[in-house]
């Protein structure tokens, strides 16, 4: 069921509800920043257990174009508009990658509205230095396994501007690094880009810069330590972002369980669907 959610500042957000309407309310927060919902596979895995709510974040994907504002506070308010639109008093909130950071930020702001936080493939609550250098090294190492892909990606990066087809190609090449199964990495990355929408680069830059200023602080760690909401952390052990970065969040949260899927990368539901479903089903 497709929906059009109106935010308090009048912006239209794309959203939909699928799965079992009588199931546990589950709201998904996609990664990015600046991307769009790619949770079709997650909905297929969990739809028998939950009423699955998906949405495209502000200015991204199928949501209305806009000029921001690009702040976590604004995105938290947009997420609350989605919750209110569907009449959800409390929800299980699942975020992936940047969406895991958004889901955590929402839970810190509105703990009374979150039944359980599911934090998938995030990067913890420390500074970017905990994970970003390792991510860059891992990206180049995986791309280097396919020299022609690496050369083409570097060629596209070096250009001043790209056509939409070239932008899609560049993104797909970069996304191949997210998968441990190198034989199927291009196939998986192509599926992420279908459908394709322009990446919102202004959104990406602004929110990443905000994270650099606000993450890794004693205040954030203290807020997580005081959070009285159950949390599940799900990692793919083969994610190129160092999983040790997430230890900071695991140490801080008082009610947390962590599941590491040993053969999965950044999108664990793709490479270990049974393990991912089993981990989340215990919450649902």
Automatic annotation (TrEMBL):
Single GO cellular component term: membrane
Start and end residues of each AB hydrolase-1 domain: 25-272
Sorted UniProt keywords: Hydrolase
One annotated GO molecular function: aminopeptidase activity
Single biological process term from Gene Ontology: proteolysis
Family: Belongs to the peptidase S33 family.
PANTHER family: HYDROLASE, PUTATIVE (AFU_ORTHOLOGUE AFUA_2G14860)-RELATED, MONOACYLGLYCEROL LIPASE
Protein name (record): Alpha/beta hydrolase
């Amino acid at each position: 069921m497709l929906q059009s959610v109106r935010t308090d500042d009048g912006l239209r957000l794309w959203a939909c509800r699928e799965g079992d309407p009588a199931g546990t309310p589950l709201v998904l927060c996609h990664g990015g920043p600046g991307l769009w919902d790619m949770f079709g596979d997650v909905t297929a895995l969990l739809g028998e257990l939950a009423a699955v709510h998906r949405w495209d974040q502000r200015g991204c994907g199928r949501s209305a174009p806009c000029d921001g504002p690009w702040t976590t506070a604004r995105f938290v308010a947009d997420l609350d508009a989605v919750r209110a639109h569907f009449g959800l008093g409390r929800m299980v909130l699942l975020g992936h990658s940047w969406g895991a950071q958004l889901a955590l930020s929402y839970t810190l702001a509105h703990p009374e509205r979150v039944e359980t936080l599911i934090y998938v493939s995030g990067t913890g609550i420390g500074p970017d230095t905990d994970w970003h250098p390792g991510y860059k090294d891992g990206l180049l190492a995986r791309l280097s396994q396919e020299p022609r892909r690496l050369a083409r990606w570097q060629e596209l990066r070096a250009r001043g501007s790209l056509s939409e087809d070239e932008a899609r190609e560049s993104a797909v090449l970069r996304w191949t690094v997210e998968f441990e199964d190198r034989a199927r990495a291009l196939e998986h990355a192509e599926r992420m880009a279908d459908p394709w929408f322009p990446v919102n680069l202004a959104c990406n830059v602004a929110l990443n810069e905000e994270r650099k200023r606000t993450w890794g602080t004693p205040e954030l760690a203290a807020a997580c330590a005081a959070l009285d909401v159950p949390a599940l952390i799900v990692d793919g052990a083969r994610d190129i972002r160092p999983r040790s970065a997430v230890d900071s969040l695991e140490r801080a949260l008082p009610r947390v369980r962590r599941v590491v899927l040993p053969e999965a990368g950044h999108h664990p539901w793709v490479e270990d669907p049974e393990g991912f479903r089993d981990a989340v089903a215990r919450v649902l």
